[in-house]
Amino acid sequence: MKWNLKLLLLWIVLSAVFISGGCLERQLTIKTQPSDALIELNDELIGITPVTISFNWYGDYNVRITKEGFQTLNTHRLLKAPWYDSFPFDFFAQILPEKRVDRYEWNFVLEPKKEVNQEKLLEDALKLKGQL
Question: How many angstroms separate the CA atoms of 108 and 94, rounded?
């Protein structure tokens, strides 16, 4: 009888820990200079900077930033997982009773669009045509 009571108590305590487990939220904020640029992550439209999104996975992200009057920026960034988000620590990090938010921030500087000299462009095209 004592063992059944102890097992029942243990089951209740473990159930309470799992049910009341905390929450781990991951947020990424992307800022640009100048602001109001359009952001795409892995070919998915995210929004206009400054923008904050929730994400589930760490890893390499393809970033595309566009803004009228500025050169389009195609690059990638790595979101590296913290030590507590790897086995076996990740299990315990996600059942802690408090809510935790991991915040990351990326900053990008956009270059002004360079004006193309059409006469020079046509001259270069004729040179290339002559080389063919």
Answer: 31
Give the tokens for residue 120: 């020079």
Instruction: Report the distance separating Cα 92 and Cα 85, nearest Å.
Output: 9
Q: Where in the chain are the domains?
A: 28-113
Select from 68, 29, 25 the least CA-distant residue to 46.
29
- Rounded to whole angstroms, how far apart are CA atoms 94 and 80? 17
- In tens, the pLDDT along 23-70 reads 778 899 999 999 999 999 999 999 999 999 999 888 999 999 999 999
pTM of the shown model: 0.67
* CATH domain 28-113 topology: Immunoglobulin-like (2.60.40)
